[in-house]
User: What shape does this take?
Amino acid sequence: MPAPPPDATETTSILPGAGGAEAPSGVLVEQAPLSGAGGTVLTPAAADRSRRTLGFTFWLSVSWIGLIVVLAVIAGLLPIPDPKAIEFQPGLNPSLHHLFGTDDLGRDLFSRVIYGARVSLTVGFFSILFGLVIGGILGLLAGFYRGVTDGIVVGLSNVILAFPAFVLLIAVVSFWGPSLLHITLTIGILSIGPLAVVVRGNTIRFAQREFVMAARMLGAKNSRIIFREILANVVPSGLALGLVSVPVAIVAEGGLSFLGLSVRLPTPTWGNMIAEGRVILTQHPGVAFWPALFLFLTVLALNLVGDRLTAYFDVREGAL
Amino acid sequence: MSPRLHLRPRRPHVADPARFQVADGSALLEVVDLATHFRTERGLVRAVDGVSLSLNRGQTLGIVGESGSGKTILSRSIMGLLPKSNVVRRGQVLYGGQDMVGMSERELRLVWGAEISMVFQDPMTSLNPVMRIGRQITESLVYHLGIEDDEARDRALALLRSVGIPEPERRLREYPHQLSGGMRQRVTIAIALACGPKLLLADEPTTALDVTVQAQILDLLQSQQQERFMAMILVTHDLGVVAGRADEIAVMYAGKIVEKAPTRVLFRDMKMPYTEALMASIPQLQHPAHTRLAAIPGRPPDLVTPPPGCRFAPRCRYAQERCWTDEPPLMEASTPGHLYACWYPVGTPEGREALARNEERGGPAPPPEHIADTVPATVMAGTEAAG
Amino acid sequence: MRYILRKLLLLVPVLFIVTFLTFILIHLLPGSPCISILKTNATPANLAKCTHQLHLDRPIPVQYVDWLRGSFTGHLGQSYLNDEPVSTVLAQSIPVTLELLIFSQIMAVVMAVPLGILSAYRANTRIDRVATTAAFGTLSIPDYVRGVVFVFLFAVTIHAFPATGYTHITDDFVQNLRSVFLPSLALALGSIALYHRVLRADMIATLQEDFITMARAKGLPTWWILVRHAFRPSTFSLVTIGGLNVGALIGGTFILEYLFAIPGIGFNTVNAILQQDYLVVQGAVLIVTVGYVMVNFFLDLAYPLLDPRVRHARAAA
Assistant: This one.
């Protein structure tokens, strides 16, 4: 899994830019025009406004995600045929009965895409949830207490990051069988690496800010108080990060099932549908097209939402 | 210097100097009613609101004002170095007889660096941190004058020497962060002077430097100016900076020039209460220790909706009712070349009376009813009368 | 120098841990290579003999140490399947993957840099929005989907490139490029989007800096300022992300290799896992991990070259 850029300034990790070099983490999509007089009067107001509101595409993306999630959850209640039922005429074009038509074996494509969404979404959200909770706690502890805790967490993260993910995934699938649980868990464990690193970086950044020092000096004996203060700041960016990681997990599961290593056919997943469809692309393009489209739209929507939220929350930090 | 492919022979990019020739004695730079407004969400910010001035070669003009007075925008506007969108610029900036306000950026680029140069405030941020000093100097030489690398290097060395940097050969290959603040500013000056401009705009050149270094830099600017017979505009918030070094001083407040006079005349015979207040706020050596600094209470007005009368009225200890409603125009004093804008100037009978009246009252005249609501509380001097 | 040594010291344990964990993992897999080797001859007696011959009956830590010792001298064992030395198998597949990586990254950089600079300079205009949206869009298409689309467009519909297969670079240079082009492009598209975003963001920030205004005040033309002044300070994030990306891609090319039947490391590793060719997997993991770690290490070393401030800070430390 590609790791997001590290935020920390002084760490003992092997990650680049972490050993003292100040690699700017400028991955925000800033929106500011070319300044000609070093500090224009216009820019801060306009840029601030564009960050404060979330935008039309944001809400469009949220709606899509909501739609997909709802459809996937209530799939059983929808008036659509069994995704595995080979009852219909193969190669039908989209119609009222079959919104996306049928595949080469006569199965309803719309139904298969919706049921396939279940797999992708489950793996995507729950694996990152797992990784965020564990990675987040580890990152928080490491960034706050430093010392030995920090060393252990960083070492662990480095190992996870350096580990070839696909070896683990394929090995797990071969050993324990291709079930949703195993795949979700594995991707979740793999995500701990990058998530812990970034949460740690943010924690360090906040722990160095004055209000934490002030709390300490006021004699905040209970480090939980400080914990809560930092937590309130780290959680929003952590959530945004998680949101951006979900599509990565979805794509990873898609890749696995593309290779035939996830939930097995005839249970549809977007990945295995694309793999199926790729050999009959000219005769039955729909088999690969629809799941690919849904996969693309879902990943795009999640990326947009996550990106927007990241920019939104980071501005609030800066405004402090 | 890094090697580069010579795809075509170097050619100079500089305006024909004949274009900007002026007769001896006539003004090199003439600014006529220059206004610079910015379109923002809150409205039109009138950063510079009708400024006129003129400058001959070899002369120094000091522009003094607080932050927010518009002095930096003025210097940028004179040069034309403004953002491309949401800026309204009116008036004339005649350089060598040619109006720069209408010129395209392409034309202006032939002037920038070669005819008119600027020295910025903070040398740490105005120099490119990842480019060697030498290259930052030679690139203007190469671009504007079209000379080859070797000659450019020699000239850069000479420039560094002339601004008083020791070991110039070493410095050429160094980066900005390896130099001290004072040296960095010398480098900035060297860059500005590289192509022999006739006009130098120095925007708070010493503000970011240690006090001990400030005098050196100002001396350097002065000597370079004399040597090259340049015109210079010194923008600063510190009257002390321009005291001994400017031929003429213009005091700016809220986007307008409120007083302008030859230096000696200004110090001897200032008319504007604002100038008086500025003068009074300079700490003096002869005062006993722990003397309270006489700060000017209140804050500059909002430039989107400036007050209808004199813009300094809310903070002026001479203020009378008329000051709130009628804006005083720039008038000429008895000494020629001394302009000021005040109804109750310092040192005049009217002024003394106004001050006496205010002292009786226990404070400056309050604004009339219909004006009072428009003036925000932060601008008002409140009960903290100065002096 | 001390800095370099300190970094290296941290990398070594990571290598050990990763390879050890992989070792354990592989050995937990059900089945045994002996079955694949003996096939129909897999009687219990033969199995036992095979297991003993391959030292598979020794405790796992011992097996690991044996392997480790061998790896220091480059003896990574034999492939169970085709009886070639693992080092040979890997040595043949590394250059293939490497070619894919290099080619794709060159493509990505060549396309992303001008687009990024343009987007930053004309931030928020239509051209920028188009470029950013396009970048975002391609970022959201998984690489295998890209691969399938490309095969459909360029190999099936118009026969410009081969759909599968790899021609070795020494056999036929042109054919080699043709066979690598589509997977490289598929790989590159993901990277282009990433690099464009990062470069654009950094450059927009750089363009706000005072020294850019000063460069403008010197009368220098816009393209000069963009390329000679603004670009270099804006590359730090790009280099970081680029390095991380390549590090991740080292282990991530396997789907495209599988799709296009390119015999690189990913392809061979996947096959080896599925057929329980332990030592090949072990060796491949070693190579991939070493590669990842090296990339990050060199990335860290690269910063002083890019930013003279870092150079002097580190020398002083």
